[in-house]
Automatic annotation (TrEMBL), chains A, B:
Keywords: FAD, Flavoprotein
Record-stated family: Belongs to the FAD-binding oxidoreductase/transferase type 4 family.
Species whose genome carries this gene: Massilia hydrophila
UniProt KW Flavoprotein keyword: yes
Transmembrane segments: none
UniProt-recorded name of the protein: FAD-binding oxidoreductase
InterPro entries hit by this protein: Alkyl-DHAP_Synthase, FAD-bd_oxidored_4_C, FAD-bd_PCMH, FAD-bd_PCMH-like_sf, FAD-bd_PCMH_sub1, FAD-bd_PCMH_sub2, FAD-linked_Oxase-like_C, Oxid_FAD_bind_N
One Pfam family in the UniProt entry: FAD_binding_4
PANTHER family: ALKYLDIHYDROXYACETONEPHOSPHATE SYNTHASE, PEROXISOMAL
Residue ranges the record marks as coiled coil: none
Segments forming domain FAD-binding PCMH-type: 84-264
Length: 531, 531
């Protein structure tokens, strides 16, 4: 069963061994887990729902609580400390566009706002219910999850947009296809959510971002349905898909989406390469990203992340042997790990991988074989469970991510980590910060930074610590010339920084679009831009 | 010098030999050229300008005439027959964003509409001056053409958006880079025009469409400047670039644009392959487009285009030898020519080309070597001069283009050609129609159709013939499920069909955006959507 106050399935654990705990204690001090409230207590804390009954709406406290929040750290704090101040007044589970329209009419009749809910994996406050004011109807899309059509000739598949990653891939795999979109949240996040937040998957190097995969679909808006037909390309005015991508529920609900699919790859392999230091590693990945080799993944950890990951992984003895072997080859304290993936037809993927490893070697890289890469592949959706394990030992884990042109990548990474390190000094607390480049482009890269710090045991203190940390690193991102999000979206949490890149005129343009589709400001109010 | 009433440089001619003329006479009847009016007579026909003097504005009849129209067939008819009913009241040539803002203020002060002018190559009526009503100021961007910055690390180059194709490539080539954007209009069209109309170049298979090349820039809008920063990717809400792409001058003028550039290719080669018939050729190009080979161009002519091109090319004896050689190999009457291009690093381009030719062979293709491909490369911007030559013999040439998912490609091509063939029956005239697939995608292809028909010598008759033909083929396009334009844009000429793909709600969304940036409806009114 899915955890109600943490990540993922309750059956999946990820333990931190003594060595890992000692490492964390050295970095930020010994942790002490706060006492989580029970599900029942959290339910009991909810104010009663304010919507009249409707056959499609579940107004039970249990269901309302399970759809009240996402996976951001403040969301976790609210759940763990039992401080869920706001929840939807009801949650609906439509099975058709007609039911969605029916629910819009119900919301309109009762002056309710509407929050679209996909997999509940937002880490930016997309699902937060506004305080006070009108009632809120959350529309959960999980029952609209069937593959509705598959066109093998055009390689297009149409899905109910509430389909989750595993369900989508399973339905495609049965026919020999894949979408190839694997965000970290893959287990729960949905196609509709990916589109609404401009998601990016771990193998975007091969398959592209969701922007490129989303070919068309149907959006139910308060002003009526918007059907976006599929074309391979078009110069016919503004691209309507681009109004939906990143709209974060502000203009309606994507109910059906057609995506561009690929044949399942013949072969797929992930290899690890270590570099003696960051600069050599960066030069290598830039050359790889600009070299046009048909790779499927590049993921470069900086030195702190490399050593943190090797330590937290367990397998102390194996890691010690690996590090000794690497040290002999010049990769010591500042070493950085690169994962290189290639997927596709044998005749293309193998030469590409060979060429990539050769290029890495010419930049001082030491090929460590397939073991670590395959381990990454097996655990690719498991590392996020680390948040649960860390919490159980009294540590909070949070992340931010951005993307920047190449000259800004390293300065931004350093500035983000420095801002994090300084953020909690007022409380006498340290932050352990590390980063990787998760998506590489000819133009630049995304920087994905992780922060570990201690929980205080007090909701107010921990929320204030998060706020201070979030402000510091977000300021650092925009000052370094980065976008406030490369793959998580804006929601509530990133909205204060959005004006940096959009300007007032650009924010206004987004608002003008939303007003057109949703003149009453009913849809996910307050997210992205002021309502 | 540039022709004022036709395509291109006066020094460049393209003759039709006797064999070609006999072919055209067989297809649509013998032609008789109408009498073109002189430049002076056309100037004398303009009504006086209605704007007061401004230091940046040239209100001479000569300059106003030269900026009154684009290159669509109705534009040609107006120029050739001396029926330029409307022209801008003045033409400005700003050299900075400040001057553009100054011109906006001037236009506002005098209630004038503003038409942005790039290279004047629109074939969809983007530049048409509205009839009557307020005065019109055309802002010609040709003086803002410098490379303003080059970032070799991020492979970004910033240009004044009025830069033409050759000027842009020359400035990049000096540093070893290319944009790789080569639309047929390359000689004159501009970066700003490409962005505003969502242009696609002949080698988009390698370099992508302008949507992917345009990384950011600055738009002067009536509500102030919109600066769009560059990121490799972002999930921060709606992408502002996508509001500019395809906006066709309706929200402001792109004054500076940053584009993603590539290293000049080490090698580049174009080869020709002939197929015995359309179905085999189509299967081959679909497999090529979906195979992910790093090719730079695929261009497949149908049987009528193949024979037309071979006939119009001159070189009768060489063509006869080629056809005899092809006939021995099974490519006879219905044969279709495919051009395959590969560009890039030697180590990637050569194997890709080899693999492509192998795949084509397995689909029944006959490799005809590099000669025809190289000839295409040398003449790639020359074939459009054929319009001048045809006119001189009494023939009009017009084109339409669309893009469709694979299952719709062949039916659409047939429907477009059938609609063209039937269009002028009321006048007892025939239309010679032929097509090629100009851009190939895993999802589908663009269909580019050319029509040749006789001129009548009467402006009204020829305009009516064009109207009838345009209506027929445009209806065929949208009924077949195609977009009304893959690369030419919408302008005035395609606007009646835009609702088919956007719906009323989508059209309204575009209009809402334009109103936000341009509340007075000053910018290029009437283009794309009703003002």
């Amino acid at each position: 069963m899915r955890r109600w106050n943490g990540w993922g399935d309750e059956a999946v654990g990820m333990a931190l061994d003594d060595n890992a705990l000692a490492f964390l204690a050295r970095q930020v001090g010994a942790g002490r887990a706060p006492q989580d409230v029970s599900f029942e207590a959290a339910c009991a804390g909810l104010a009663p729902g304010r919507l009249p009954p409707h056959p499609l709406v579940d107004a039970s406290a249990r269901t309302r609580l399970l759809h009240a929040l996402g996976q951001s750290l403040p969301d976790w704090l609210r759940l763990r400390y039992g401080r869920v101040d706001t929840a939807p007044d009801g949650v609906a589970f439509p099975e058709s566009g007609e039911q969605v329209r029916d629910l819009f009419a119900f919301a309109a009749a009762h002056g309710a706002a509407v929050i679209p809910y996909g997999g509940g994996t937002s880490v930016a406050g997309h699902l937060t219910v506004p305080n006070g004011g009108r009632p809120v109807l959350t529309i959960a899309m999980g029952r609209m999850r069937a593959m509705l059509a598959l066109d093998p000739e055009a390689r297009l598949a149409r899905f109910g947009a509430g389909v989750s990653g595993p369900d989508l891939e399973a339905q495609l795999r049965a026919h020999g296809y894949t979408l190839g979109h694997f965000p970290q949240s893959f287990e729960y996040s949905t196609l509709g959510g990916w589109v609404a937040t401009r998601s990016s998957g771990q193998q975007s190097l091969r398959y592209g971002r969701i922007e490129g995969l989303f070919a068309g679909g149907r959006v139910e808006t308060p002003q009526g349905p918007l059907e976006i037909p599929t074309f391979p390309a078009s110069s016919a005015g503004i691209d309507l898909r681009e109004m939906v991508l990143g709209s974060e529920g502000r203009l309606g609900i994507l109910t059906e989406a057609t995506v561009r699919v690929s044949r399942l790859p013949e072969v797929e392999a992930f290899h690890a390469v270590f570099f003696p230091g960051w600069d050599a590693a960066l030069a290598a990945v830039r050359a790889l990203a600009q070299g046009g080799l048909p790779l499927s993944m590049l993921r470069l950890s900086n030195a702190v992340e490399t050593s943190t990951m090797l330590t937290l992984a367990g397998h102390t003895r194996a890691v010690r042997l690996l590090e000794a072997w690497l040290a002999l080859r010049g990769c010591r304290d500042g070493k950085c790990m690169l994962l290189v993936g290639a997927s596709g037809a044998r005749a293309q993927a193998r030469p590409a991988l060979r060429a990539a490893l050769g290029l890495a070697r010419r930049h001082g890289g030491v090929h460590a074989g397939r073991g670590l890469g395959e381990r990454w592949r097996r655990k690719r959706f498991r590392s996020v469970y680390l948040r649960n394990a860390a919490w159980a030992h009294g540590y909070a884990i949070d992340t931010v991510e951005t993307a920047l042109d190449w000259p800004r990548v390293t300065p931004a990474m350093r500035a983000i980590e420095a801002a994090a390190a300084a953020a909690l000094q007022g409380w006498g607390e340290r932050v352990h910060a590390y980063s990787h480049l998760s998506h590489l482009y000819p133009q630049g890269a995304s920087v994905y930074s992780t922060f570990v710090f201690r929980l205080s045991g007090s909701f107010e203190t921990d929320l204030a610590r998060w706020r201070r940390l979030k402000d510091g690193v977000s300021d650092a991102i925009v000052q370094a010339g980065g976008t406030i999000s490369h793959q998580h979206g804006v929601g509530l949490d990133h909205a204060p920084w959005l004006g940096h890149e959009k300007g007032a005129l650009g924010l206004g343009a987004m608002a003008a679009l939303f007003r057109h589709f949703d003149p009453d400001g009913r849809m996910n109010p307050g997210k992205l831009v002021a309502p």
